[in-house]
């Protein structure tokens, strides 16, 4: 099978969709050496899996970071390349596809945040998404949802398409695992002067609700006088004014650590934390909570979200806009219940249900099915 893959989110610093794309391509190309994988990127980027003999890289300019360039890239550059390489199928892991290509397409939808949390999307982007996402979902031969939560949302928003939607959950890398006490102490010495800490991992923009997390942390410190820190690990993204303002107004700035240069450090940071604090307003999956579970790290996350699908009964669920709720969860975790060790084991056991290898196997089945059906 000759598989063309949209790899435009493969960037030097992988986030979200880029990480998803990397993991699936890494595993697909390793598990299926007889298939050809044609990875289409919009800038000169290299990833280790691209050195494999069954992986071919295509740099297709220009870089696509604006709706006009999205349209040009997908509707003009992509169709001609797919035809040139004779692709059997096109896999697009970022929710966009080409409406002009005749090549059968499998599309991944991570979430429909542009519908439910439109204020977190730039206006120019929102216009494009509202116009084209429905067309993309209609055009795709199959749509992969990363959670049942997202699958149900797609079915609700776009009726009559249930038969083409499949759920393939995200996985968790083997890099995420528990650390012994010695390594945890070393990590804390490096980042928080030896103090225990809560952690948030991800880019900082309104939907991630980091401003409320900071305010809840302030309330927790004011109530308890605890010397614990809050680590915010991720880049400052678009429209982060509320977060910056919350940081500026915090009475506990010296206990809030911002980390932006985090390449390769995330597994250690998560495994050494008191808890992952992921109180997002809207998600399609919530990968950081799964990564925390794999490390045996406690999770504070949003109720009525796909994170409940991932964590089951093992997380501390909060109302993301209720500071008291988040603060209470922090108090609960820092109380150090005698069942904490048992909880760590349960978290790791549940996380073991998810793997990128399993996701790649299921995706390959769908790609093969669609390619065969379209011949």
Care to describe what's here?
- With 375 residues, the protein is α/β, with parallel strands linked by helices.
- It has two domains: 2-171 and 355-373, 3-Layer(aba) Sandwich (Rossmann fold); 181-351, Glycogen Phosphorylase B (Rossmann fold, 3-Layer(aba) Sandwich).
- It is built from 14 helices and 13 strands.
- The protein has helices at residues 16-31, 67-85, 113-116, 123-139, 148-157, 181-192, 210-224, 241-249, 266-271, 287-294, 306-311, 323-334, 340-351, 356-373; strands at residues 2-6, 36-41, 55-59, 89-92, 105-109, 142-145, 165-167, 197-201, 229-233, 256-259, 275-278, 298-302, 316-318.
- The strands form two sheets. The protein has a seven-stranded parallel sheet, with helices on both faces. Strands 10-9-8-11-12-13 form a six-stranded parallel sheet, with helices on both faces.
- It is globular, with a radius of gyration of 21 Å.
- The protein starts with a strand and ends with a helix.
List the helices and strands and how they pair.
Elements lengths: L1 E5 L9 H16 L4 E6 L13 E5 L7 H19 L3 E4 L12 E5 L3 H4 L6 H17 L2 E4 L2 H10 L7 E3 L13 H12 L4 E5 L8 H15 L4 E5 L7 H9 L6 E4 L6 H6 L3 E4 L8 H8 L3 E5 L3 H6 L4 E3 L4 H12 L5 H12 L4 H18 L2
Helix pairs in contact: 1-14, 7-8, 7-12, 10-13
